[in-house]
Every structure is written in structure tokens, then in C-alpha cells.
Amino acid sequence: MASGCGCRARGDELVCVHVGRQGAREVARHLLTTPGNWRINPDHYTERTNDPLYPRARATGAAEKAFLQIGPGAESWLIEAAASGAQRVRTKMVRAVELKALISSELIDRALGRAAAAGRRRKEVGFPSGKTCEAWVAGASSIPLPTQNGLRTLEWIHRRECLSFSGPSGTGKSHFVEALGHLAIDQGMRVSWFSLERLATTVARSKVAPAG
């Protein structure tokens, strides 16, 4: 019997199977993602310092060397910033080093680590436009301002409440929902983003075939 490998989607996951002399055996399972958005499960790889999956930051100047001395959170932030094409990286590094002289370097390192983790989660979610609360014009929305401010506290999530928006096209529904998603990520929450088409496809794949 010839050996081989195969993959197929099952619900929200991609199941990888190896077929050998002993039959089929599942070897890996990945969450599905959207075209153009990569997703890596670090548990599937052993830790190797020279592996491109685990890059190490190398200082190319005095500013980067001083920044990396803050700690591992600073290193994670710099790697994420380079991978995502973040702007004003050098300016942000200088400010972080300046803050280090005023407050605990441990606090700065922890904050940089959280920012790096949030950046990775944003990539995994695959938001369609990257719109945040900073770009949201509260006064231009028909949503009452007190309601907007209440939703931005995200207390409704902790209360396990559902939120639904309805209205004509072009009123900022998707923008505001995406901005709330970014806020949730900043607070360390897990977020998933589904378009209507992708949600329908996921539900269809999850249906159990009738017996018979």
C-alpha cells in the first residue's frame, strides 16, 4: 500500500492525515484562516533558535541595542513591528528607552510584550480593514454617544451579552464592530471575525450528515 498525506476541512479546522501501512493517522490539526492571512501553531514545531519560525532580533545600531536591553518583551515587539511594517519604529524605541529611565523597565517590557501579542492576534483574526476607534468619528454616527461610550467599555462582553447592529449601508456598522474587536484584543480577549459568506460556509461544513 502506497503512503501519502491528505488534508480536508472539517468545521473550523483543517485536518491533516498520513496514510501508511497501518492505515490512516491524523498528524496535525489547524484552525482555518482566510486567503492571504497566515496562521501558525507553534505547538507543531520544536524550539530552535535558528528557525525562521522563531526569529531573534539583532541590534543594528546603538538605539536598537538599548531598546533590546529592556527585555524579552521588547524583542518580541521589535520582531512583530518589523514583520507587520509598523511605522515610526525607531521613534517608539527611543521613547521606550526614555521611559525606562523614569519607571520600572519590567513594566515597560511587560507592556511591549502585550503589544506584540496583540499584534499577532490581529493577524490571526484577519480584520477586513484595520479600522479602529481612533479613526471612528463619534459625532457622525446615529448611535447615541452614551451608548457608544458604554459599548467601548466592553462590559457587555463580561456580562456575556450579545450585540447586534442593523441599519442601511454606509452608516459605519462594520467600522464600529471592528473597532470594538480591536479594543477586545487590547484587553487580552480572543476574537474571531466572520463575514456573512464565511459564516454560512462554516455552518454548512459543521452540519452532521443524516444517518441512513
Report the order of strands and helices. EEEHHHHHHHH
Number of strands: 3
- Rg for CA atoms: 22 Å
Into which percent range does the helicity of residues fall?
40-55%
- Terminal CA distance reads 30 Å
Mean pLDDT: 80
Structural class: alpha+beta
> How many domain units?
2
Taken from the alpha-carbon principal axes, the silhouette is: flat
Uncertain ranges: 45-49
Task: Specify the biggest β-sheet.
Answer: 3 strands, antiparallel
Beta-strand percentage? Answer: 5-15%
Strand order in the largest sheet = 1-2-3
Number of discrete helical segments: 8
Question: What can you see in these coordinates?
Answer:
With 212 residues, the chain is of the alpha+beta class. It has two domains: 47-125, no CATH class; 133-206, no CATH class. 42% of the residues lie in helices and 11% in strands. The chain has helices spanning 62-68, 72-84, 89-100, 105-125, 145-152, 155-158, 173-186, 196-206, and strands at 4-10, 13-20, 23-31. Strands 1-2-3 form a three-stranded antiparallel sheet, with no helix packed on it. Residues 45-49 have low confidence and may be disordered.
What's a quick, concise take on this entry?
This protein is an alpha+beta fold. It has eight helices and three strands; from the N terminus they run E-E-E-H-H-H-H-H-H-H-H. Mean pLDDT is 80; it is low at 45-49.
Keywords:
alpha+beta, 42% helix
Detail the topology: elements first, then pairings.
Blueprint: E1 4-10, E2 13-20, E3 23-31, H1 62-68, H2 72-84, H3 89-100, H4 105-125, H5 145-152, H6 155-158, H7 173-186, H8 196-206
Antiparallel strand pairs: 1-2, 2-3
Helix pairs in contact: 1-3, 2-4
